[in-house]
Amino acid sequence: MIDIDILVIREPGLLRQDLERWISNEWVRPDRSEGHVVFHDIDVARVRLIRELRDDLAIDEEALPLVLSLLDQIYDLRRHLRMVGGFTGVGA
Amino acid sequence: MDDPYGTLGVARDASQDAIRRAYRKLAKQHHPDLNPGKPEAEARFKKITAANELLSDPVMRGRFDRGEIDAEGHEPPPRPSYRDYAEGDAGARYGGTDDFADMFGSMFDEARRKGGGRRPGRDELFALTVDFLEAVNGATRRLTLPDERTLDVAIPAGTEGGQVLRLRGQGAEGHGGAGRGDALIEVHVTPHPWFVRDGADIRLDLPVTLAEVVLGGPIEVPTPGGPVRMRIPPHSDNGTKLRLRGRGVPAHGGQPAGDLHATLRVQIGGADAALDAFLKDWTPEHAVDPRQAMETTP
């Protein structure tokens, strides 16, 4: 778990204002602890994902919520399939 | 070792712009988050990314082109992709609402309903044979079902053959806490030796003696409700119909009681010398030819 300062340092090219906007848009949902935001590994990976989508795949921030929402739904589905697969013995 | 130019599908002298375009095009195709469940896409994406990182940096590209470094040597240490987290338990953090849980829940509910979940039991059909008088007057019969249950079946008065009685909640067991189905009892009625049902009325051939039919008099008539005394009018005949009002099928279900229709059937009995003697000397007061109608119309 790291805070926002460390994350910005660790991710070259990541602008703090971008990150703060993503947080306020709830595209990234770090934990909040005593007024500080705390990033888990998945949050860091999600920041990278957003940057890849935006910078590498040229998905602008207008379309990003849609893409993120679709991805979240797919992962939800896959997690559930995996869970169901665990129950039924069928690989998901 | 992969050639980063080959990986991106660009010429060795491609411009930085062409490399970026090629990378974007391939990254769109192979991005692991757009290809969940395809590990080969992820591997390919890593190669594409590594190739891009090498070639998009003019300094690195120059060193690679000069052979100072190789592509593999500068492959960044693999870092977990978003997917590695998102598909694990941590992914729930960015899970949507409970839509999926709901969806799965309802799918399983559906499956349970179809495959033996909560659903009411089937209706079961049983046949029950009852006596004529039980059907007419009503009765309670105990029925032993195939599953050892016993069922007291109230047969209402006036039940007709083929009628189906529905006993709510006495059918097959429900599943998942649902109630039983209904028991459907199809009633069969055995014929009676002398009573015949005609709707609410009962017909009866009533044997009478010669004296009773000629002289009339009180007799006892069987009815479904028990014997009833009645008077045969004098000078009745074989085939005379008498009606006992209200002595047919008892009133039931808002229907008034039916009547009993008795048709007199004269029985002469065995040989009787006195009768023989009388008839030899007897001259009928009004001679009739019972076959007259048959003679005039051949």
Automatic annotation (TrEMBL), chain A:
Name of a matching Pfam family: MerR_2
Name of the protein: MerR family transcriptional regulator
Species per Swiss-Prot/TrEMBL record: Siculibacillus lacustris
Lineage, highest ranks first: Bacteria, Pseudomonadati, Pseudomonadota, Alphaproteobacteria, Hyphomicrobiales
From TrEMBL, chain B:
Protein name in UniProt: J domain-containing protein
Chain positions covered by the region annotation Disordered: 59-90
Family matches, as Pfam families: DnaJ, DnaJ_C
Species this protein is from: Siculibacillus lacustris
Signal peptide start and end residues: none
Annotated transmembrane regions: none
Domain J: 3-68
Any one cellular-component term (Gene Ontology): cytoplasm
Keywords linked to the UniProt accession: Chaperone
Basic and acidic residues bias: start-end ranges: 60-86
A single GO molecular function term of this UniProt record: unfolded protein binding
GO biological process per UniProt: protein refolding
InterPro entries according to UniProt: DnaJ_C, DnaJ_domain, DnaJ_domain_CS, HSP40/DnaJ_pept-bd, J_dom_sf
Organism taxonomic ancestry: Bacteria, Pseudomonadati, Pseudomonadota, Alphaproteobacteria, Hyphomicrobiales
